[in-house]
Every structure is written in C-alpha cells, then in structure tokens.
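Propose amino acids for all 208 sites.
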C-alpha cells in the first residue's frame, strides 16, 4: 500500500500565514492558503496552568510539556479510560492507532470524535474538505490569542493538516500536532517493554 501524502501546516508566531506542503516520498505539491491577520502568539503555558486544560486538547494543540510527553498515552488512558482503553482500528502505512471518543472534542477550530495516534503525531479526523477545515483553523487562530490555539510552535512542535487516505477515513482531514522528540514513540507502551527482544550484542573479536 503506498504511503499517503503528508501535508504540514507551519504557522509563523508573528504572522498567522498558513502554508500547506506535501512531505512524503511523492513529489512536493505545495498549496498556499490565504494569509490571515497578524497577531502576537503567547508562549506555551507552564505545566501548572496546563493541568487545568483537557490533556487531549493539549496533545492536539502542541501544548504537552516535554516532561509529560513520553507518558502521554498512559496519562490519556487514565484521564479518558473509556476512550483510550482499546484502539478501535490500527493502520500500518503509516502505523497509526484510531480511537473513537464518546464525546466530540474541539481543537484548531474544528470538532471531531475520532483521534489517531502515530509514533510522533496526535491528530483528529475532521469530516470535510481540506479547504473547509483549513479555513476554520485559520479563523480560530485569527480570533483567539489566549487559548491553546495560539501556543508558539518551535523546532520540536509542528501543526500538521492533511487529507486522510486510509480505509474508513475517506472524506476526512487529519489535523493536530507533530512532536519531534528523539527516541520517543507514542505507539510504544512501556508496559510492553518486556515483550521486546533485546538488541543483539556485537560479536566479540576472536583472539587466537
């Protein structure tokens, strides 16, 4: 099965100009959306303030602190046991776990009841076209300067938005956050570490 086109949406902290681009093995086909008005982005809130916000909204809007990121899935399962106890569906290209929420959640100006977790992305599947979802996102960014939507993005966090192509997600757009934390995969459960085979050790040099 061919890899889907993955489009990333990079937002400048000083100017909310959203640029869509494809970054997969396929040739890049950039699609530029209309620029929105300028606004000043507020830095990410400290951990004590983030505790008062829904953790799933934090994850979707790039506001999970580095110290909490490695244990994000365990925390989501504790906070939302009925939503994250079991993956509703799993995909292999690319690897993603799909979860159905009992109640829809809103982030980036859109609402959805389906969340997908990949190794380094937390996204929600919004029913609609790319232009429609992007327009709602831009409108939310333009109107909000105090919510998680206005959190500053940096080298370790990127807002992503792309059309879904996996079976069962046709007609949906995935929007959320990419976390660039080296050595951490959201698909790895620390409780399953004992199941993994240890890496083979390098052979010792032969001595006569």
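Proposal:
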């Amino acid at each position: 099965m061919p890899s889907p086109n993955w489009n990333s949406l990079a937002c400048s902290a000083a100017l909310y100009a959203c640029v869509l681009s494809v970054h997969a093995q396929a040739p890049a086909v950039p699609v530029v959306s209309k620029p929105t008005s300028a606004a000043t982005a507020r830095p990410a809130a400290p951990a004590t303030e983030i505790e008062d916000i829904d953790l799933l909204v934090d994850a979707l809007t790039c506001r999970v602190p580095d110290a909490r990121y490695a244990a994000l899935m365990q925390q989501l399962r504790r906070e939302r046991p009925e939503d994250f106890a079991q993956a509703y569906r799993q995909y292999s290209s690319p690897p993603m776990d799909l979860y159905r929420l009992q109640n829809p959640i809103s982030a980036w100006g859109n609402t959805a009841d389906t969340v997908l977790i990949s190794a380094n992305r937390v996204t929600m599947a919004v029913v609609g076209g790319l232009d429609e979802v992007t327009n709602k996102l831009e409108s939310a960014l333009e109107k909000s300067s105090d919510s998680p939507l206005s959190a500053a993005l940096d080298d370790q966090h990127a807002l992503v938005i792309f059309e879904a192509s996996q079976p069962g997600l046709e007609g949906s757009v995935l929007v959320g956050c990419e976390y660039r934390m080296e050595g951490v995969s959201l698909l790895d459960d620390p409780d399953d570490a004992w199941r993994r085979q240890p890496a083979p050790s390098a052979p010792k040099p032969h001595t006569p």
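Residues 7-190 form one domain. Strands lie at 7-11, 18-22, 31-32, 89-92, 95-107, 110-117, 121-127, 157-163, 172-179.
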